Amino acid sequence: MNTPHTTLQTPLDAAQTKPAHPTTVPGTLGLGLLIALVVGSILGSGIFGLPQNMASGAGAGAIVIGWTISGLGMLMLAFVYQMLASRKPELNNGVFAYARALSGEYVGFNSAWGYWVSAWIGNVGYLVAAFGALGYFYPAFGEGNTGAAVVGASLLLWLVHAMVLRGIQGAVVLNAVVTVAKVLPLLFFIVLVAAAFQMDKFTFNFWGEASLGSVLDQIKSTMLVTVWVFIGIEGASVYSARAQNRSDVGRATLAGFLICLLLLMAVSLLSMGILTQPELAALKNPSMAPVLEKVVGRWGALLVYLGLIVSVGGGFLAWTLLAAESLFTPANAGVMPAWLGRKNKAEVPANALWLSNGMVQLFLLLTLFSKASYLALISLSTAMILVPYLFSAAYALRVSWQGRTEAAAAPRDLPVAALATLYCLWLLYAAGPKYLLLSALLYAPGAALYVVAKRQRAERAFTPAEWGILAALLLLALTATTLLASGQLTL
């Protein structure tokens, strides 16, 4: 019988401890595939609803400010992942590894857990959006949460599941092909809408109507939307262990971000020169469809709906890969149960994939009863990922401060990490108490898996500080449960 392990490790020691089994596959993904993974995971359904999602709570002026804050903030975060990929190449799956190096194993576990939950909830949102788009052609699918839609989404879910089980490389190559296919209709939209852009509509009531609240309130209303459409910026970092060249991870992150930033801002801001803010706010999603229909007629709407279906399919595939990988690496590092670190003959983390898609299936069924909307699902998914982003930025801040005199340090590293950390703190504030409480409700149960993993390794589960973190999570989760039961908190 093993004696319980009681030696305490520093967070940095823990981060650099080699797992008992290798967690990497010899490099299989080149720069092009990594860029496609970043673009494919960022561009899903979000961009197709941007005109309405942004205009529903803000005027053009606040939206411009919101994009400026989010663009700069996410650029800093992209630089963070680029810098850490270069200066800490030994850390695989950055979202998990950076948090563990920062504050220990339970914090690293929570970062991986939050990222995983965000991934599969986002996939539920993707499926709801895809079949909501199909509802334009087949009314039985409704808004994507009818019985017919859930059956169709379930079939698609397990079809993709079976394909991924055959091999990661093939799935990533397919993702690259789909990514190119979904960028083309976006470019087509941008060209046509830019040609019809009317400056007087863009500037009309520039700072929004009084009913929208103050400019600060309007800016805050854009935050979860802009973060949602940027989620996936860390995609190359999550797959860093499979990169042919570790330096490509940082390059792919930055290139993918810049491509997506230009597309997202163009779709959002150009639409405000076609319809006014109240008109955009009243649109049904995907709101790109009625915007383009206003410019070129009904075939424009058809193009957008078809583009959305292709885009969501690609985004769903990319996030299926990321969800499985976000469990696989921590399992091999000993902070999740060992069975989640097992692979099949095709080198796919099969058990992690089964658990991820099983949760997607469960929540698809729940949409039948809760009628959870696409926007509610993406807001919850976004809130779950804010903490992992904050841990990455904070770790970069520590690395850049401690190593500011090293040869590898660049003058921009410290200010970039500081700005990224401030941006992540701002996002937590902008998210508000509702989604933070709902996030705690989803973070807290993860502790059970963490305890199982530690018992498998005959190690003590929590340090005194980690007990405090767990107690705080449980208190917030209990508060959320009480408020949900009383109807004061809803999804």
Describe the protein in words.
With 491 residues, the chain is mainly α. The chain has a single domain, classed as Up-down Bundle (Amino acid/polyamine transporter I), CATH 1.20.1740.10. The protein is 72% helix and 0% strand. It contains 20 helices and no strands. The model is unreliable at 1-26 (pLDDT under 50).
Q: What is the CATH T-level topology?
A: Amino acid/polyamine transporter I
Order of helices and strands: HHHHHHHHHHHHHHHHHHHH
Number of domains: 1
Main structural class: mainly alpha
Features:
491 residues; 72% helix; mainly alpha; Amino acid/polyamine transporter I
Brief overview:
With 491 residues, the chain is an all-alpha fold.
Layout: helices, strands, pairs:
Blueprint: H1 11-16, H2 31-42, H3 50-55, H4 60-87, H5 94-103, H6 105-134, H7 147-164, H8 168-196, H9 199-203, H10 215-230, H11 235-238, H12 247-271, H13 277-281, H14 288-296, H15 298-332, H16 350-370, H17 374-402, H18 413-443, H19 446-456, H20 464-486
